Amino acid sequence: MIQAGLGAYAIAIPALLLVLLASAEAIWPRRALVLGRSPRWRTHALFFISNAVMGRLLSFLVVVGVAANWADTHKFGVLNLVALPFWVEAAIAFIVLDFAVWLQHFYMHRSPLLWRMHAVHHSDRDLDVTTALRFHPFELIVSTFYKSVIVALLGVPLLVALAFEVWLNANALFNHSNIRLPRKLDRILRLFLVTPDMHLVHHSTRAEEQKHNFGFALTVWDRCFGTYSAESIVGAENQKIGLAEINDSRPSGFIWSMKQPMT
């Protein structure tokens, strides 16, 4: 019952944020869209539905919440071996999980097999809040199992595990959004959090720039491992988004996008 209630918040909060950011994009757009909203938004909505169905199927095997419950029941994982205040456990879990997500993203760009899945996300020729929904179900499967293993090994409490999922999804929606932040605000935020302009660099058509700014939330990992880049070498206004080898409207189609890892 508790998990179901928390799960509802985990859906409702990002959904509300998506609506708010989409509205902000219409008022303060950062860049003009190349392919526009339609049919991209329809395609990304279909990705969301497909991944929701896949997530439901995965729930019969393992999901992050199930992994957290299992670790608690069996007193498994690092945090279950030591007695720490709850807020300390939460802080440790957030930091470790955020690094784990950064590391997964890093290897998505290094492994040819993982890149075939992740390239679906990068093939979008525009960047807006709905791009955060554009992940192939294959990548969802890999990500779910990976995060579930980390949650179990660390012994993350259920409430913290679900709160982290909300945090991760909210940050992904924010830093993929096509909103123009005041420069001063952007500079302050990116000391800690990945901003839209910072993540914009990662979606460059230039392969060398795709190897920068892997963070989805905290910027500390890119700064520590030398993968931080403030801006594209051609400037944010001139930077092209997507994959260099795809310069047509195919990424806006759902069927083509679903078949992309197999081509």
Which key phrases capture this entry?
mainly alpha, globular, 263 residues
Any idea what the shape is? globular
Estimate the strand proportion. Answer: under 5%
Supply the number of structural domains: 1
CA(first)-CA(last) distance: 43 Å
Question: What characterizes the major β-sheet?
Answer: none
| Low-pLDDT ranges | none
Percent of residues in helices comes to 55-70%
Radius of gyration: 18 Å
Taken in chain order, the helices and strands follow as HHHHHHHHHHH
The overall pLDDT, averaged over residues, is 93
State the secondary-structure class: mainly alpha
- Summed up, the helix count is 11
Would you mind describing this structure in some detail?
- The chain is mainly α and 263 residues long.
- It has one domain.
- Helix content is 57%, strand content 0%.
- Helix 2 crosses helix 6 and helix 4 packs across helix 7.
- The radius of gyration is 18 Å and the shape is globular.
